[in-house]
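step 3/5: co-fold with beta-D-glucopyranose
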Amino acid sequence: MPVPRVMHTASPPPDVPQADAAGIEARVADLLSRMTLEEKIGQLAQVSGGRDHVPDHLRDAIREGRVGAVLNEVHVDVVNELQRIATEESRLGIPLLVGRDVIHGFTTVFPIPLGQAASFDPDGVQRAARVAALEAAARGINWTFAPMIDISRDPRWGRVAESLGEDPYLTATLGAAMVRGFQGDQSLGPGHLAACAKHFAGYGACESGRDYATTSIPEHDLRNVHLRPFHAAVQAGVASIMTSFSDVNGVPATANTFLLTQVLREEWGFDGMVVSDWDSIRQLSVHGLTEDDRGSARLAACAGTDMEMASHTYAHHLASLVRDGEVPEARIDAMAGNVLRTKLRLGLLERPYTNPADYPAAASAEHLQAARDAAAACMVLLKNEGHTLPLAADHLTSLAIIGPLADDAYEQLGTWIFDGDAQHSVTPLRALHELVGDRVTLRYARGCATTRSRDDAGFAAAVETATQSDAVVLFLGEEAILSGEAHCRADIGLPGNQEALVEAIAATGKPVILVLMTGRPLALERVAERCHAILCAWHPGTMGGPAIADILFGNVSPSARLPITFPRVTGQVPIYYAQKAGGKPPTHASYIHIDNIEPRAPQLSVGNTSFHLDVLWTPLWPFGHGLSYTTFEYHDISVSAAVVPMEGMVTVSVEVVNTGHRDGDEVVQLYIRDLVASVTRPVKELRAYRRIHLTSGERQVIEFHLTAADLAFYGGAMQRITEPGRFRVWIGGSSDAQLYTEFELRGDTLTLPASTTS
Ligand code: BGC
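step 4/5: write tokens
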């Protein structure tokens, strides 16, 4: 059965008429001409709200025009009071931006972004952001700090959970979908949130996956990999960009003129607003780039950071920096202008107040259904030996449900859920009772107190429960707190004593199904050997339970694909599919037996190639991998022409057949390799994908069209070019796809403007 889709009919208040671009610019100029230097600098300050009241210092600051935005205020009455003070008691009556981390839902929590990425479904991702925007906007929030589109190739980094995974193309397409979901397709306005693409840029490349650690990224990797999703977000009209905490090649992102001015403004033409990350301007002196806050304010302002989040270096120093001639007043005008333009685009000046009655109720049946659909669409069936899944309620008399995550309403929500309400969560245990409790005897044992517990006090009861049952479903993985900002892990195996629990349960000889709830890929080589089926549910959100139950019992066929590689062991990290070949690429003949190291493959070494002695060089599960309850075959890949002119287009087609006994969704993935180029290119790169539905036995010819722009990359001279030559193109159901064809692109090297991308 396909993942069910619902239409969301909830209607926000009608849009106010938007001024055209020229009209907005005229209003920006008019406002600026009437503002004092201090009022302009006031627009650049983002300060914390008082949570449930308006503190006196905040009231005074807003009245005096010293605040442009607040964050973390979610009580609509308080937000309205803040807007009243801004619009009625400040001299110019400019309303406030009200920001919040609305990352994967609001009251209704959707799967973590990494899970949403597994859906390979831009429409679904857009719908999730739309629901989140409606629930947040009902509280007066008008700006979200999402999407997070940092390329994440190191699963030790806790923030992989917030990301859309390892691939620039997938992240670009899904990040743009999130922007459209938050901001609306047409124009910003009531019921929409200004989106904020973050963290610009390269944050995910932190050394050893340790949050906030330094990054060293060669410029062509920066441009080909890390910047690509940000460019797509800019092209999708993202209203704002947040700088990264990290040091990028010696200049922290918050003071990085190359990133914030050259690339973002000059090359891409971005005219929205740039906000610092929390306190990241003040931290420039901690990096050792400046001596003090005054120096930090000067560098950040001159580099292109418009608004300061949380710290006060702009408020304290910008005015005197202007008076002393160290920051030109024109710079302050540009910065304040970017903030005012964002407010005008939001329609805030026309409509500063929020009436919650204009919005659909939070966690409505419709929103919960959307969260359930999204959760089902994000679950990746990693392994399914001997058709262990789906379970058949008619043939099963009893089922053991074991693990600390089987019945934990909070942990299934994942990281960054400030406003998520666990009271709405439906846990797997509850959902399974509701789905099959009348037909199947369900026995529950927690096994471990938490995913981190080191004792085995609960093992005996868990083993007893397994022994009494026909099959076992283990709910293991990571609690929410084990991923997210500053929550990195050096060893990404199953935490605590969970692996020992798997062994104890496997020893019963019962069929073992592992449902993994996690914020990151885990290194599961040993665990995987002991389980018959493994379903990766990520942190699936409010409606994770019913979605899992639907998949376990076959109401829904799993269709999601890994947006990030699963290593066998932590030591393989970083491991990602779009690697470079190197001069001695690994081959299947590369393993040796050595004393003291467990041999993992029987082959003997036949040469020096790129591999580790103690582990296969392949991942446990590659990017794009995911099984279904049906099977798909690919045939007859072909290109429309073997030789294609540089200005032309090539159509690549393939026949996909559902060869199994069930209907199902397949994610058809197209990868390319530029076989010979002036700089080395990855061995495979995702360039297109399409989710299709095929009934049992159905066959469909799928076509993808590629132009020179789809084959472009930043070369040695940092120009976007497409070079002539041979290209290999694979189409299949994962990055491991074997079916390929080739074509030759003929003509002169094409140089493309940096402002366009495919
Ligand atoms: C995070 C940002 C977040 C901000 C506001 C920072 O610590 O890095 O991603 O938006 O806090 O909560």
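step 5/5: annotate
Confidence is low (pLDDT under 50) at residues 1-18.
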